[in-house]
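User: Here's a structure from my thesis project, written as structure tokens. My advisor, Dr. K., wants to see whether a designed sequence matches the one we expressed. Can you design one independently, without my sequence as a hint?
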């Protein structure tokens, strides 16, 4: 990967304060990548977990310090709260250490396209209407991540790279697949309703970059399973990066099938920043 300086970087679902957080991979990502804008799209700090018991190792503090240092150096850092760090929604439009808290900000790409940014939990009916069930599911998810941790210890000792067993299973269970599909459609519909070109979110821990109708749907993934981020290069091209053992682009919009062309639009118009999709390998 040649490009290390980006117009923008999007991160979400880091879950600092949990044992599942892959802080060492994230620290390596921050050290090796720079950007004019950093957008933190929720569940950066896991308030749910920290309320139950305190877990805050040095690497988690290092992540916070690295991000604060980027803000001090002049990078624009915006924090969009999620459901696990919802306490920050009490501080919308305020600044902390050079980081601004915002609910649903917009980003404009190099070629002028507008991207709506949000966490995505308001499109999850369980989180909105049955929080106790969401917390029970969160506990079950932690168990799965613990199994995943020991599974990868064995893999590493055998010389294999990191691979998320929990993500593999989640993406193949029918109910989970249906939930993800419904979630993606609802988020894309919201951007379309607002007449916005694209939307980027987190929440479901599944990195994605694809068209739903004529709306570009983007999901940054997470840093507990897949270790993924979304970036915008200086030509306006969006990509998903996988930053575990194999540091590579796994999805780039220059490989996406172009969306349906509107009647009367010029041939090829508007393609540079929102074009095509590659699934060279599954994130995680």
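Assistant: Designed independently from the structure alone:
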């Amino acid at each position: 990967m040649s490009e290390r300086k980006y117009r923008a970087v999007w991160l979400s679902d880091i879950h600092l304060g949990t044992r599942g957080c892959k802080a060492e991979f994230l620290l390596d990502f921050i050290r090796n990548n720079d950007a004019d804008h950093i957008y933190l799209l929720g569940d950066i700090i896991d308030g749910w977990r920290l309320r139950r018991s305190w877990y805050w190792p040095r690497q988690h503090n290092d992540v916070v310090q690295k991000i604060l240092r980027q803000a001090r150096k002049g990078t624009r850092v915006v924090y969009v709260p999620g459901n696990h760090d919802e306490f920050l929604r009490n501080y919308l439009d305020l600044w902390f250490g050079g980081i601004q808290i915002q609910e649903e900000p917009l980003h404009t790409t190099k070629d002028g396209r507008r991207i709506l940014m949000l966490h995505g939990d308001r499109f999850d009916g369980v989180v909105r209407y049955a929080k106790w069930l969401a917390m029970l599911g969160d506990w079950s998810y932690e168990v799965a991540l613990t199994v995943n941790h020991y599974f990868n210890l064995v893999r590493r000792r055998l010389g294999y790279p990191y691979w998320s067993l929990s993500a593999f299973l989640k993406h193949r269970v029918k109910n989970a697949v249906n939930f993800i599909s419904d979630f993606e459609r609802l988020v894309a519909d919201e951007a379309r309703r607002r007449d916005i070109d694209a939307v980027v979110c987190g929440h479901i821990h599944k990195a994605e970059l694809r068209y739903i109708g004529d709306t570009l749907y983007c999901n940054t993934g997470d840093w507990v399973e897949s270790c993924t981020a979304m970036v915008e290069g200086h030509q306006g091209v969006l990509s998903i990066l996988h930053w575990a053992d194999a540091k590579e682009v796994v999805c780039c919009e220059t490989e996406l099938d172009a969306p349906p062309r509107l009647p009367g639009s010029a041939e090829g118009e508007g393609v540079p920043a929102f074009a095509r999709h590659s699934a060279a390998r599954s994130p995680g």
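When you compare it with your expressed construct, this may help: The CA atoms of residues 116 and 194 lie 9 Å apart.
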